[in-house]
Fold this sequence. Notes:
This protein is α/β, with parallel strands linked by helices. Helices cover 48% and strands 14% of the residues. The protein has 16 helices and 13 strands.
Amino acid sequence: MIRLFINGLAASAGGGLTYLRNVIPHLAKRVDVQTTVLLNPALRAEFGELSNVSFVATSETSGVFRRFVREQTTLPRLIRQSGAQVLLSAGNFALWNSPVPQILLSRNSLYTSADFLRDVRARGDYAIWADTKVKGWLAKGSIGRADVTVAPSEAFAQELSQWSGQKVVSLHHGFDPDAFQNDAAPLPAAANAQLDQAKDALRLLFVSHYNYYRNFETLFRALPILSNRLNGINVKLFLTCQLSSGANPGSYRAEAAASSVQTLRSSENVIELGTVPYRSLHHLYRACDVYVSPAYAESFAHPLVEAMSSGLPIVASDLPVHREICRDAARYFPTFSPEALAECVLQIQQSPALAETLSRNGLTRAQDFRWDTHVERLLAIAEKLASKVLSS
């Protein structure tokens, strides 16, 4: 029996939520593990009562730095009270004086991305630039404080290792196809209506909140190029966000992106669905023809695995992480080239054989990502750390 403490306070959106929503139920199935989890109150309500898992109640603390300070001062006591042997810090920042061995999950690629820092400076978002630099300093220091740092891909593990000068372990995140595809919850009626209106068009899909590092603007600039080469076939890009500030996590300003859509005369081609519930998201993937990911910074990219499992051919920016995750299930383009992006989509549209090959390769590749495998390897690391303490 191993006793594990998970600090999940930092999980509020995106990959952090996906991670905890999948890993905690898998840990609950393990009779050889007793897990204590610290979560924000809103997320705690999702889990109900689980076998072998106990939850620590805490009041909400807004802001990364306030939460960081609070964790450093109160978390050691909670860990001791739980009797945990190993701490799993799930939000990029470590506990600097952990009373037990610590595994750090580091998955934020912005701290190491020169492209992101250049981008925010070019946009004049100096507050985001400064915020990222300070958080990056904390994240780098956290890698030095942890006993083991785990990254969700080999490419990102290498990037973190070069950046921090520390050893970083690669451990792919998983995917549960049954949980993703078997929920009968339909798409919202408004989304279905917009998909039906585009049934004769080439339907592209990009699943993401609006932010800078997903490189929406390169995708938008590719649309008129693609439309001009499709010989009368309409193209529709479906987004799971709204291009307005305040409608997305973080402080990213979306108005410039929305304006670029108007300037490019692509407003009829871009469909802003807004947030689509995860339980019905599989319907959206299956209703589209090509999945596109133009991101310039990434550490894993869960939507790529979701797209592969749905049989969608993929067009992705040429990042090492994208090639690692998708392998031969995607066509890759230079990250900031809308012309090359449009060409990749056009190749798939014009070649049913290529589309079928990419789809088949993706279905096969998606089977390599399993949450039970991830949890098994994670627990092996935890058990090794715990045994070192017992033998010392």
